Amino acid sequence: xxxxxxxxxxxxxxxxxxxxxxxxxxxxxxxxxxxxxxxxxxxxxxxxxxxxxxxxxxxxxxxxxxxxxxxxxxxxxxxxxxxxxxxxxxxxxxxxxxxxxxxxxxxxxxxxxxxxxxxxxxxxxxxxxxxxxxxxxxxxxxxxxxxxxxxxxxxxxxxxxxxxxxxxxxxxxxxxxxxxxxxxxxxxx
Length: 189
Prior knowledge:
Elements: H1 11-17, H2 22-25, H3 40-47, H4 59-64, H5 66-73, H6 95-101, H7 105-109, H8 126-134, H9 149-158, E1 163-167, E2 170-173
Antiparallel strand pairs: 1-2
Helix pairs in contact: 3-5
């Protein structure tokens, strides 16, 4: 795994313990093909000098996050290293199309809210992508659930279908059929 500034961004604290929604940092995920990383101002909003919260009062925390304040003061971006990589031959991976279709972040990135150090749990190679495109239903959740990683993890672990409602303790499922593109030009252009 690449080394990150400040010893690494801990998703386990931010997305896990604090329950931050993926979209707080990855603001353009629903409208852009690129999954943006946050600008330094987003990080600084919580990690500014003197800003006290439950998790940033320790001396150790102040040292680990000093790079955020330094980057903000120097008006420089934080140089994060990409962890999740698709092969070089992929020219188009539209995050927006996937999350808007109901593909949870969990399906490709795993439960990032459990990761102190982010790693790539899926191979993200063409065969893996095509397997999903040929049978997307097992990876789909209702749109409102896409970013709720713990719920998606539990759902995927406990059932093959997607429960659309629960009545008297019984789960009812709705078949979702999405014609995901399999043509080469969908990803390669």
